[in-house]
Design a protein that fits this description.
The chain has 175 residues and is of the alpha/beta class. The chain has helices at 13-23, 34-39, 41-62, 72-81, 88-100, 128-141, 156-169; strands at residues 2-6, 28-30, 66-69, 104-110, 146-150. The chain is globular and about 40 Å long.
Length: 175
Amino acid sequence: MFILFEGPDGSGKTTLAKRVSESLNLPYHKNPYEHDEWKNPDRYKLMLRYTDLYFLTYLKNSGSNVCLDRAWTTEWVYSQVFKRGFDEVFLRQLDDLTKQIKDSIIIVTYRSNPPVKGDELEGINENWGKIRDKYLELGDWSNNRIIYINTENRTPDETYVYCLEQLRSKGIILK
C-alpha cells in the first residue's frame, strides 16, 4: 500500500498523514529538507530524478507499504505556479510508476485560504490560491486514483474519519 499525501502548505496533510500512518501501522516519511530543496529547483529536480524514481521502483518491486508526505506531485504543482519549468515526460513516468504500485492512492488536502500568514517560503501565501487550484487540477492530469479532502470546515478528527471512509470506499483499506 502506498498513500501519497499532497496539498498546499497548511492544508492539514502532515497531520492527516501521520495519523493515517499510525492507525494503519504504516511507515511515515516526510522529506525534512523539502523547503531547502524547493528553494533550489536544480537540486530538487535531481532529487526527483534519483530519489523519487528509485523509491517508487523499490515500492513497486518490494510490495513495501508507506505513507509519504509529498513527492513528485509537489513539483508538478509548484513548478507550474512559479513558472520554473519542469520535465513533464519524467513526471508522467513517475505518475505511471506510482499507479503500478499495488493499492496506491494520492490524497490531496486543501482549503479555500491559507490558515496562517508568514510562511517561511517566499511567494507561498500570495500564490496560495493558485497552488490550491493546481492541486485540484492534478486529477485531470494524473492517471492515479485521487481523493480530495477539503479540510477547511473539518476538525483534524473529522478529517481523519472522512479520509478512512474514503480509503475504504476505494478498496485501499478493509478495516
